[in-house]
């Protein structure tokens, strides 16, 4: 036990603490080049821009603390246009033409799977932000910052239904409507099975193609079904478009849950009142009791406001991105090298303290614990409401 505590403590130091100390002088030598793609355009851009800002903040701070191995860090980011095939081509370029030292994963499951394929071909370690289907990530040197555990199709819906069971009026009927985007479809099918086992009556199940923008027919079907809970397998702005379509029909769902919404638009739009979603971190205690998290929150707030983001607080997407960079820094510092195999072996053998909690990679396909919590839009802000020990001070689930 003492040995394990020492490992965790060492990992916490390695993960970087956004030091307030004076900046050290960087050693001479070529920069450490980290290569990434992000969906800077296309349907996933509203969320990917959050990941871009977080990476810029982390790399700037990392360089102020001496970079990696005493060398400046240079982050090369390319636009994958929200297309997995484009991400695959760009990661090939990053490895072969740009000759980056390290890889950082893209946003969204489809692009991540493409990047994993390239990383495996060249024996590169890949740390990534938001992989949602653990069973598909079979490469031995991939590491998820998205801590949803090895069986999220079961554990994530159960967390949601536990939260709702503890509410004043638990739902009895459910409509499940979902994109066919890989992780969304996988989790929605999981929710369908879990709902049946927990005695919820399914009154509607609908699917749409990723990229769909006409949600009127889907909204009409949901309204006619009259569910107590609408489980929406959405990503980016899809959930906003569905709720806007419902509003045009003078319909407001009693309870509505969204898997991976664009954080700002979902929090700030009038029709998204009381929306539920998953989270690993929100900008309130007890998360912000961590001094690393508190400093990141302050910086992010300032930079997001300057960038004109509709929502300037740190939430699940920003936290996942920050965590990924913490994992990368921890593995380099601990091994004192840029050797992909050494870094991967270290991550599999150790735990790393991050702003969302302590991560480990010793379960199915390098996934560790499911740290997902449930959050809700309340007064234009995301606040955690379940489990109670992670809820914002005074926050409870509203209906």
UniProtKB/TrEMBL annotation:
Keywords of this entry: Amino-acid transport, Signal, Transport
Gene Ontology biological-process entries: amino acid transport
Signal as UniProt keyword: yes
Domain Leucine-binding protein: 31-380
KW Transport (keyword) present: yes
Transmembrane regions listed in the UniProt entry: none
Signal sequence extent: 1-27
Superkingdom of origin organism: Bacteria
SUPFAM superfamilies: Periplasmic binding protein-like I (SSF53822)
Annotated InterPro entries: BCAA_transport, Leu-bd, Leu_Ile_Val-bd, Peripla_BP_I
PANTHER family: LEUCINE-SPECIFIC-BINDING PROTEIN
Similarity comment: Belongs to the leucine-binding protein family.
The protein, known as: ABC transporter substrate-binding protein
Species whose genome carries this gene: Ferrovibrio terrae
Organism lineage: Bacteria, Pseudomonadati, Pseudomonadota, Alphaproteobacteria, Rhodospirillales
